[in-house]
Design brief:
Rossmann fold; alpha/beta; globular
Length: about 400
């Protein structure tokens, strides 16, 4: 298959119904950490957004119209994010792409006031509480963490096992903990021995020895890659990392979206082996139409191998796909591309109107009562230095029980 044909897979678009006319420019804005803390995720994410919109414009996927997405670095600083957002508003953007949990929560009232649809890179469930305009790309961190917890419980066939949760010291990290605790009260058969908010320690030896002494068999991580990599290397050095799932007397490590990916393997090396991880994105380590198209897109725009194979590059592509699809649907109907109509279109993206971007393991579905786009998750584990899928896509069983 040629690069051009492979790239067409990413569009999921029927061109026949799009009217051709003098070109209009639809403005979007993206503020994120291209540099500074979490730039290991933000940098490839920004490239994914940029490249897909370039592709849309170069290939005329929305006719003669174009999408102009302004991208600004905020270095993971909420005050800078707020300033960037205000500058985007001056440009009359029709949709906003935000990044961090902290800035999404801080700007929530602003989004409501100006009535602008927002797709953040943060999957924090609290983003959507008391908000009509925030749409999560995939299942929340809470649903991801619950999915991992449920997998542990199912594999242990009714036996209660001891679990620790290793989290980022922020709302991003803390959010899922209460939801797992709620699920336990509803019947999830786990015992949370300890919740650890990691600091900047470069040695987790005391913590890991403490968990072993408390007979912890599993550690679920909800943070970013670097502290997880340090912990995995320490566990390997101490000889307590499980070589098989649930190995007795040792610890099996699991994590949600931002804890894994190829960056984790690069940081942790062989210590990443047997790390279990969940996300809703398709990975380039497993060939599919979507991953082939992603690699072709990266090649077309001269991205390096690291960016091309990053799940955060995939993440950026996917949010740009959703934005493009909303605009495409409005153009087919002959409706104005504005904030109000994009908001309505996103809420109608369900049932027969679900969107299949091929970069994810399930369809994107939104409604006024469902603000998580891709509800399906895929479990992966590191095998011989690459993430490989475990089983088929799944959904959390407890997420609806705790709402």
């Amino acid at each position: 298959m040629t690069v051009k044909k492979t790239l067409i897979v990413l569009t999921c678009i029927s061109f026949l119904a799009i009217p051709v006319h003098a070109g209009k420019v639809y403005k979007l804005g993206l503020s994120l950490a291209i540099t500074g803390p979490t730039s290991d995720a933000g940098n490839p994410y920004s490239k994914g957004v940029e490249d897909y919109f370039r592709f849309v414009n170069d290939m005329k996927l929305i006719g003669n119209d174009t999408i102009h997405c302004m991208i600004k670095d905020d270095q993971y600083k909420t005050a800078v994010t707020k300033r960037n957002f205000e500058e985007f508003l001056d440009e009359e953007i029709v949709l906003y792409l935000n990044y961090s949990t902290g800035s999404t929560l801080a700007l929530k009232r602003d989004f409501e006031e100006v009535q602008i649809p927002v797709i953040p890179a943060s999957f924090h469930a609290g983003n959507t509480v008391n908000s009509k305009y925030i749409f999560l790309p995939i299942a929340s961190y809470s649903e991801q963490t619950l999915g991992l917890a449920e997998y542990i419980a199912r594999r242990n066939l009714g036996k209660t096992v001891n679990v620790a949760i290793f989290i980022h010291p922020s709302a991003f990290g803390r959010g899922p903990v209460k939801d797992v605790q709620k699920a336990i009260k509803k019947g999830l058969n786990l015992n949370i021995v300890e919740v650890v908010e990691h600091g900047k320690d470069l040695d987790n030896t005391p913590m890991l020895k403490r968990l072993i002494s408390k007979k912890v068999q599993f550690v679920i991580c909800q943070t970013i890659q670097s502290p997880v990599a340090i912990m995995l290397k320490d566990a390997q050095r101490l000889g307590i990392a499980a070589s098989t799932f649930g190995e007795k007397g040792k610890i099996t490590f699991l994590g949600a979206h931002y804890t894994g990916g190829n960056d984790l393997i690069a940081l942790a090396g062989t210590a990443a082996e047997n790390f279990f991880w969940t996300t809703a994105y398709a990975l380039t380590s497993e060939k599919s139409e979507g991953t082939s198209a992603q690699l072709a897109l990266a090649k077309k725009y001269n991205r390096d191998i690291k960016a091309a194979n990053s799940h955060n590059y995939t993440n950026g592509i996917m949010v740009a796909q959703v934005a493009t699809e909303a605009i495409r649907r409005l153009k087919i109907k002959g409706m104005a591309v504005n904030r109000k109509n994009i908001y309505t279109t996103l809420n109608a993206m369900n049932g027969f109107n679900a969107f299949y971007p091929v970069t994810t393991v399930g369809p994107v579905t939104f409604s006024k009562n469902d603000r998580a786009g891709v509800d399906s998750l895929q479990l992966y584990t590191v095998h011989k230095g690459q993430f490989r899928s475990v089983g088929t896509p799944f959904r959390s069983e407890f997420i609806k029980k705790i709402k």
